[in-house]
Every structure is written in C-alpha cells, then in structure tokens.
UniProtKB/TrEMBL annotation:
<dbReference type="GO" id="GO:0102193">
    <property type="term" value="F:protein-ribulosamine 3-kinase activity"/>
</dbReference>
<dbReference type="InterPro" id="IPR011009">
    <property type="entry name" value="Kinase-like_dom_sf"/>
</dbReference>
<dbReference type="GO" id="GO:0016301">
    <property type="term" value="F:kinase activity"/>
</dbReference>
<keyword id="KW-0418">Kinase</keyword>
<dbReference type="Pfam" id="PF03881">
    <property type="entry name" value="Fructosamin_kin"/>
</dbReference>
<feature type="region of interest" description="Disordered">
    <location>
        <begin position="360"/>
        <end position="384"/>
    </location>
</feature>
<dbReference type="InterPro" id="IPR016477">
    <property type="entry name" value="Fructo-/Ketosamine-3-kinase"/>
</dbReference>
<keyword id="KW-0808">Transferase</keyword>
<protein>
    <recommendedName>
        <fullName>protein-ribulosamine 3-kinase</fullName>
        <ecNumber>2.7.1.172</ecNumber>
    </recommendedName>
</protein>
Length: 384
C-alpha cells in the first residue's frame, strides 16, 4: 500500500551544498512520509494523472520510490523516482539523466526510458529528482553471456561522440564520485585525468599512501601514454564510444515481463569501448569475472591493436572502478588490489624505485578471491 504523499511549498533557498546529503539524515525528519513534490507531478508525461507515491528500495545517497499515475486511456502506470539532496545530488542525477537519454536514444530496449530531471519546489535542503520508466527486474540471475555481449557491443558500435572527442557534456558520477569528463582529443590524456581525479578523492578519503601516489604518478606520466597513446582499430584510431560508466552486476537486470537484459544506474561518457569491461575484473564483481563475458564481447567487437595488450589494458581500466569503490568504502581491501595492479603495470612498462613488487597472491584475477559487498543493491528498478 502506498504511504501518504507530501506536497509542499518552497521556503527560502539554502546555500549550495557541495557534498550529497545523507538520506538517513533527511528521512529521519520525514516521519515516514515519502518526499513527493509538485515538480514531479508536473514532470509526468502529458495527460497522466498522479495517483500515489511510495518508497521503493534503499540507498545511501538517494531516496527511491515508485510513483503511480493514471494514463489517458484509464490504465495505471508505474514510474521510478530517484531523489538526491544538495547541489552535488543535482549533479549526480543530471548526469544519470543525460547518460540514460544518450543510451535510450541508441537502444531503447536496453535501458528504462528516462522521462525527466528537475528540482523540487521545496528547498530545505535542496532536492533534485530523476524520473524514469519503472521496470520490475531480476538481478539475481547471471546475464546470458551471448545476449549481454551482443547488446553491449551494439551500443558501443552505434554511438558517435557529438564532438568527435572523449568526454561528456555534463559531469557524470559513479555512485557519489564525480567523473572528470572534460572533452579531450586524446584517450590517453582523458583516461589519465579520469584516473587522477578518482585517486585524489580516494586519497582524501583514505589518507596518504606515498608508494601508491608514486605508482599513480608513474602510471599517468609513463604507463598510460605507452599503453593507450596509439591504439588502433582496423588500422584506424579508436573511436569514442558511449559507455555505461559503472558496469557490474547490480546495474544489470532481466526484465520480468519480457525476459530481456537491461542496464541502468548509468554514469556515462565517451570512452574507449574496452573501458566498460574493466570493472569486470574487480574484486567485488561476481558473474562478470568469468572469462566467458569478455571472450563473448570480443567476438562482436574485437580488441584494439595491439590486441596482445588487451589484458594489460583491462587491468589498467579496472583501476578506475576499484579506486572508486575504495573511495566510497574507507578501509576496504580493494585499495590494496588497485595498488598491486599499479605495481604490475609499472614493473612491466615503466619500472621505478620506491614502490612494492607485484604480488600475484594479492591479485584476485590470479587467486579467484572475491570481495562480497556489504550492501544489497541500493536503488533503482529492481523487484522488492
């Protein structure tokens, strides 16, 4: 049964908040009333009549719910609503909305339809919202490798950067962590800036680690230019492709009505297509760590040249996801995994003193060790 819906008017606006506000703090003051607003009602498709809203799912940085509306033909339809607080919350949701629009335009069956992004009329604290199609999904079943590979490769191939460069037109996020997405002609330069940005956030969260900082600098100045500076595909420079930006199991689901695989919770940018595969190597992935997934993908979108360096690029690309996870989970072991992978890449491509030797026993891709996340899927279009 839906909870009571709250419609409010605007008090004076507060100063901008640069960090997302904890939903725990916000919800504690709502006395169980779902934070609905007239701005969402107005954002419903034309002809829809708002009926109710209720909580759906839980999240550390957003409030999530299901909105019911009556369509012009008299049927009822559900919408998915995500709310974030503070100016950074607005950045998060605008980035997701713009990302979803790009993917939906290319492959409408691969992501829930995005409808609106906006700001509540109440502003104490400032809430922003993202409204999309509501789809019940099974997120417990492993994606079919063939279907997943086919759809993901199709998305990558269909996409065309509007500028011909790597980047995105708005800031997007992985969780609450912002991506550095300024347009760049060079993929090596773009990836170096992206990695540098998340390493800075990780250092601020987890504290200094001189050896890791030395390895990071060596990666950015020596290894990345060597590995990414002259990539080719069919003899031509690699093209920028739209990517999911946080592609792992909790952001994939099977539509319970159609049986089709879908993605969601996107934080996209135009990148080397192999970037989407990097996170599958991470400690916290499960099904996607099986070699069948990259192998199936490479059947549809072959590795860039030099193809023999695909696995080293995959290791390099995995750093962004693991360090992002480390920044969001202070003290987590994935920071050690990321550092160990840095040591491997430095040893192989640009040896340097003052860092540790790569240890295969600390490499989950060797040992098979897996970190089981301490949270369930926090938000989005999943079945209760």
């Amino acid at each position: 049964m839906a909870t009571e819906t709250l419609i409010v008017v605007s008090p004076p606006e507060e100063p901008a908040v640069l960090e997302p506000i904890s939903t725990k703090d916000v919800l504690s003051g709502l006395d169980g009333v779902f934070p609905m607003d007239e701005a969402v009602v107005e954002a419903l498709p034309q002809g829809s009549t708002f009926l109710s809203a209720e909580p759906f799912g839980t999240s550390a940085w957003t409030v999530t719910g299901k909105v019911m509306a009556r369509e012009p033909d008299g049927t009822e339809k559900a919408y998915f609503l995500k709310i974030a607080y503070g100016e950074h919350g607005g950045v998060m949701l605008k980035g997701e909305f713009e990302s979803a629009k790009e993917i939906y335009r290319l492959m409408p069956g691969f992501i829930p339809q995005p409808f609106a992004y906006g700001r509540y009329k109440v502003s104490n604290p400032v809430p922003y919202f993202y409204l999309s199609e509501f789809i019940d999904m099974d997120i417990t079943t492993a994606p079919d490798p063939g279907e997943f590979a086919t759809k993901l490769a199709e998305l990558h191939k269909k996409s065309e950067s509007p500028t011909g460069k790597f980047g995105f037109h708005v800031v997007t996020c992985d969780g609450k962590m912002p991506h550095t997405v300024d347009w760049q002609d060079s993929w090596a330069v773009f990836f170096g800036r992206l990695l540098q940005g998340i390493c800075k956030i990780d250092r601020e969260t987890n504290g200094p680690w001189p050896e890791m900082e030395r390895a990071t600098e060596q990666l950015i100045t020596k290894v990345i230019p060597r590995l990414l500076g002259n990539l080719r595909h069919d003899g031509e420079p690699i093209k920028p492709c739209i990517i999911h930006g946080d592609l792992w199991e909790p952001n994939l689901g099977i539509n319970l009505e159609t049986g089709e695989l879908m993605m969601y919770d996107v934080g996209s940018y135009y990148a080397h297509n192999e970037m989407d595969l990097g996170q599958w190597r991470a400690d916290f992935c499960s099904h996607l760590r099986s070699p069948i997934y990259p192998r199936q993908y490479l059947r549809h979108y072959p590795a860039a040249e030099p193809a023999e360096e695909f696995d080293d690029r995959n290791r390099l690309y995995s750093l962004k996801g693991t360090i992002n996870y480390s920044a969001g989970h202070p003290g987590c072991i994935v920071r050690q995994t990321a550092y160990n992978n840095m040591c491997y890449l430095c040893e192989k491509y640009a040896p340097i003193d003052g860092i540790d030797k790569y240890d295969p026993q600390k490499d989950p891709s060797v040992t098979g060790a897996r970190l089981v996340p301490t949270f369930t899927k926090p938000d989005d279009e999943v079945s209760p």
